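Exercise 7.
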Amino acid sequence: MGRYSNCLQSKEICQKQYPPIQTWQDLWHPQLKRKISLPDHDREVIGLCCKRRGLSYNHIPDNDIAQLQEDLDSIDQQTLVYTSNHYVQALVHEDTWVAVGWSGDFLEIVKRYPQLKIIYPQEGTALWFDCWALTQNLPDIASAYQWINYCLEPQNSHLITLLTNGNGITDPQKLLDQAYLDRCEPILPLPQAASLTYEKLWQELRQKP
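Solution. The predicted structure, written as tokens, is:
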């Protein structure tokens, strides 16, 4: 399990009398205009706009579509680039001051760039999970179960925690307290009508000149 929408902020920016990121609302700070990068993904960006207003990442738009459109237009004014992969160098060179992305990536990045700091917004964030599945008509299902059981044995699970960026008790950055996790949620499939609304909002945003 990991968190997706975390913020990665330059420590040097904090030292330049810039208020540190604590909430999603802080991404709208005037000093951050054209200084953030966001994931190139509709559910993540619209989701953080919803989370900012105390709603769920899985919010079903109804009579608040105009408000969501306004939120997206305003966060777009803050955004230099939408990318799910190429945000590290922009942070290091201070082209951007804040990035939103995967916790798994960030835990590795801060090892190489200690001037960067991971922020967990107070409202909570999106959760992701790595899942294993057995394919239909698997030729050797016994070996597949053997592998899964091997990885779940305590001593092996402990090693996986030590050697990867997965959650575990060995690194407090990887495992957040339960009170915070209670404010987080996985991104779930939406009803078709809601999905189409999200897609329309996202396409209109990304097609803007």
